[in-house]
Amino acid sequence: MSFKDQIQTENLPQHIAIIMDGNGRWAKQRGKLRLFGHKHGVTSVNETTKAAAELGIKYLTLYAFSTENWNRPKAEVAALMKLLVQTIHREIKTLHENNIRLQAIGNLESLPAVTRKELKEAIKQTSEHDRMTLNLALSYSSRWEITHAAKELSKDVALGKVLPEMVDEDLFKSYFVTNLIPDPELLIRTSGEFRVSNFLLWQIAYSELYFTPKLWPDFRKEDLYEAIVDFQKRERRFGKTSEQISK
Questions:
Q1: Rounded to the nearest 5°, which phi and psi values hold at 36?
Q2: CA-based, 20 to 30 A from 129: which of 19, 49, 55, 100?
Q3: Percentage, residues of the chain above pLDDT 90
Q4: 218 in catalytic set
Q5: DSSP states of 217-240
């Protein structure tokens, strides 16, 4: 029986987040430059996105470019930005055909103007789609997001719009760039690394973590199905006991 056949459609995670890792190593294993791996990783993005939408997942967030990635060699960063523009332009047809809305989270103002323009246009063109929301995390990191939220909140406190005693978790979270997105129930990381790399740290407090040795360019639909089957076998207690959950 395939992993897809084992999925309980009534128990799907509403939101899946993925750290797409291993493009560089995949290329190196083949004696190629890192960009070769990034280009082949686009196929995995396409397959995973369509598979998630077909299953009924409502939100899929992909960690595409972190704030730390700006520290990579300038030539690689420039090539990645160019690849991003090309991919968005090419995949807009897929988004339309599958009724998928595109969104982006992160410090988008730090992106090159041409990248920002292509991204905003794709977001606008798909804004009415409602089958699934695909979130691209671009120039994103949790430390950046939390710091940014603290700055915005402190501005409102200084202006008297918010009193210190009003601040709680819900209010603080409303200043996040992810404030309109539900927390992910499942976080997947490829490439065999066991870390979360500054990604959605606040939001994954109670997420189930799934690590696979597959390098991202090798990740396919069946790998996504396997992760979901594993997720559905787990007991999610949120600090409670098994006995409390079973009542």
A1: -60, -40
A2: 19
A3: 94
A4: no
A5: GG--HHHHHHHHHHHHTS---TTS
